[in-house]
């Protein structure tokens, strides 16, 4: 029981997210298509909602999914989150999750605003339903380069860059751009974590060496 509690505490953010996401999916499944569309539109981080000041959508959108629920995809995301939180700690995991979701959403919205204002993009994109946790998942996946051994980091980064690129080519959309932005944020944070942790270890090693250097020897202490 103690081990189970310890395990749950190590991945508490992931467990809370999964519980709320499951509740949202179940709730959406209990209402009709028309009402479901209205709920998704109200919770969407589309340009219309954001420019109207509906900033709560930045939170609500990550707990909902559009269209038919892909439980395999959600299980894979839950596993990714659990592993990431386990190895990185809940604070760093939550920071990466939030930076990927909020950063990609903000940059995509800015791009849509500029594109629509200059008639480069269709006005209807401002009302598009945009919900889900894929931006956060892309960022978390990218940040995992910090916790992989050296031979695997480049391969992991190349794998996810390839996945995002293939997705963007096969289904070009503003969400594909968002995934690329979120992955870039995650890779950048992974590199930052790596540099910061290396610096911390270096300082500890220097402090340890300095302590040993000034430690008086037994012979000197008897003088």
Question: Could you list some keywords that capture this structure?
Answer:
223 residues; mainly alpha; disordered C terminus
What does this structure look like?
With 223 residues, this protein is mainly alpha-helical. The protein is 76% helix and 0% strand. It contains eleven helices and no strands. α7 packs antiparallel against α10. The relative contact order is 0.11.
Order of helices and strands: HHHHHHHHHHH
**Would you report the number of β strands?**
0
Distance between the termini: 57 Å
Task: State mean pLDDT (0 to 100 scale).
Answer: 88
- Counting helices, strands and paired strands, the structural category is mainly alpha
Question: What topology emerges from the helices and strands here?
Answer:
Elements: H1 2-10, H2 12-29, H3 33-43, H4 47-51, H5 57-60, H6 71-88, H7 90-117, H8 134-143, H9 150-170, H10 174-214, H11 218-221
Helix pairs in contact: 2-6, 6-7, 7-8, 7-10, 8-10, 9-10
Brief sketch in words of this structure:
The protein is mainly alpha-helical and 223 residues long. It is built from eleven helices and no strands. The chain has helices at 2-10, 12-29, 33-43, 47-51, 57-60, 71-88, 90-117, 134-143, 150-170, 174-214, 218-221.
């Amino acid at each position: 029981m103690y081990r189970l509690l310890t395990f749950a505490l190590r991945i508490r953010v992931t467990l809370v997210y999964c519980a709320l996401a499951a509740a949202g999916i179940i709730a959406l499944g209990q209402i009709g298509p028309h009402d479901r569309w209205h709920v998704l539109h109200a919770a969407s981080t589309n340009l219309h909602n954001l420019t109207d000041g509906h900033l709560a959508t930045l939170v609500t959108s990550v707990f909902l999914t559009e269209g038919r629920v892909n439980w395999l995809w959600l299980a894979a995301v839950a596993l990714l989150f659990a592993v990431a939180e386990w190895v990185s700690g809940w604070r760093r995991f939550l920071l990466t999750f939030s930076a990927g979701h909020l950063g990609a959403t903000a940059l995509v919205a800015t791009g849509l605003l500029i594109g629509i204002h200059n008639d480069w993009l269709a006005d209807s994109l401002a009302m598009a339903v945009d919900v889900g946790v894929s931006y956060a998942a892309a960022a978390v996946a990218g940040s995992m380069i910090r916790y992989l051994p050296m031979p695997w980091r480049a391969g992991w980064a190349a794998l996810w860059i390839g996945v995002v690129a293939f997705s963007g080519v096969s289904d070009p959309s503003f969400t594909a751009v968002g995934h690329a932005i979120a992955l870039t944020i995650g890779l950048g944070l992974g590199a930052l974590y790596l540099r910061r942790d290396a610096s911390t270890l270096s300082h500890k090693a220097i402090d340890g060496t300095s302590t040993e250097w000034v430690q008086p020897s037994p012979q000197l202490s008897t003088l």
